[in-house]
Amino acid sequence: MKKMSLVVMAAGLGSRFGGTKQLAKIGPNGEAILDYAIRDAQSAGIEDIVLIVRNEIAADIESHIKNIHGSEHNCTFVCQDDFGPQRKKPWGTTHAVLSARDAVDEDNSFLLVNADDYYGPASFELASNQLPLLRAGEGMLITFQLAKTLPQSGEVTRGVCDVRNNQLTQIVETTGIGFSPSGEIIASSTGQQFSKEVPVSLNLWGFHSSIMKPLEQQWDRFFSENASSDNSECLLPESIHSLMNAGSLVVKTFSSEEEWAGLTNPEDLEVVQSKIRNLRSL
């Protein structure tokens, strides 16, 4: 069987949260959300873990991983800010994936996740069953029902997906999605209303390692246009969309029934602690 890796994007600044949300204590033993991702991936047969961090928080995350998972944790740490041009704000999720290029074995597949999103064990089991089947030019996305990915109050950004015959045809990063006072799901940024079941991406992707070369081309094109920007980000969904439009990538989708939990704002902490405590006790 081909080797599989879990790549965790944990280099974000956590500006809205007001701190290092990657290490916010969620579980009864001080677990962060990323610890559940590591455990669930390993339980699903994905042994090698790559953590994308930044230099400022690298030591803290390494110490946390050792404390929670032991000294034989089998994690590799990659600093995103060591890859490419220096800037205070990370260059986005496409840049993050490329920073882990040397940590992912050639001709193997890897699962990509956010450090601050809880996906649930069934999502990792679903992904691990499909990951070994990926070949060059193929990707995989685990989608979630929109209503199951929204906080009770506040707004979030979601990659709204168009799926046909279990294949991703379009993904649109949509900001300001949340429940209205009357219970509808609306994007305040556009006024668009969504059904509860519409599939969305939470950046739970699977790729063959050959994705790195076309992503590098996407990054080079982005950087040539945004080299002097302090805030522009090269976002993975946009890069994937471009590759699909060019006919160089096909992304299969698989729907998870799991309920999401995640951290964006400080007031999310107690809600997520309670939700994950209930989900993990089932």
What can you see in these coordinates?
This protein is an alpha/beta fold. It has helices spanning 33-43, 55-69, 93-99, 121-130, 212-226, 236-245, 268-280, and strands spanning 4-9, 48-53, 75-79, 109-114, 117-118, 138-145, 156-164, 167-179, 185-187, 193-194, 199-208, 250-256, 261-262. The protein has 7 helices and 13 strands. The strands form 2 sheets. Strands 1, 2, 3, 4, 6, 7, 8, 9, 10, 11 and 12 form an 11-stranded mixed sheet that branches. The radius of gyration is 18 Å and the shape is globular. The mean pLDDT is 92.
Average of the residue pLDDT scores: 92
Q: What can be said about the biggest beta sheet?
A: 11 strands, mixed
The SSE order reads EHEHEHEEHEEEEEEHHEEH
CATH fold call: Spore Coat Polysaccharide Biosynthesis Protein SpsA, Chain A
CATH class: Alpha Beta
Query: Count of helical segments?
Result: 7
Assign an overall shape.
globular
- Total domain modules: 1
